[in-house]
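Morning!

This is the sequence you dropped in the shared folder:
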Amino acid sequence: MRLTLRQIKWLKVAIWLAATLPFLWLILSVDQGWFSADPAKDIQHFTGRMTLKLLLATLLVTPLARYGKQPLLIRCRRLLGLWCFAWGTLHLVSYSVLELGLSNIGLLGRELVTRPYLTLGIISWLLLLSLAVTSTLWAQRKMGANWQKLHNLVYVVAILAPIHYLWSVKTLSPLPIIYAVTAAILLALRYKKFRQWCR
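The structure's back. Tokens below.
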């Protein structure tokens, strides 16, 4: 049975809730002091993990639509991508403001150069920014075939973002590995597309 437009609308409502409620939890956690002795790090990791979850959910839409024969699912991909960018921006802001401080924001450029894992993170964010800015139907029509080429950069983000996370935790931990393996599987499902590029 195929999903209807009405069901897709309800699915979008569920996506809004799934992306918004963690933000409300984050605010409540800060207010109630539920974080550890280093709340800045906790907030950075929480926002980073949310970004990765939404990135993986975005990448999951196409295989689900194709193999599950649910073409209308594609209508959820843009919303997931925009939420991924929103959480990625929160992640960047939490690092810039909570780690460096507003008075030391000029250090950000130096940090990006001296810490390679931060370089991967900012490249991922810039790519997400370019995808978010060009995610409208107007941009799609204006760019034509180049739009799809640009939006294929999400695959680069799917490689860089898990590496950024693995590198940033500095210890071998199962959670970053799970994200990296999941991203690899979602990319492997697109092997036909990648094989066509090599021809």
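Headline: The two ends are 36 Å apart (CA to CA).

More detail when I'm at my desk.
O.
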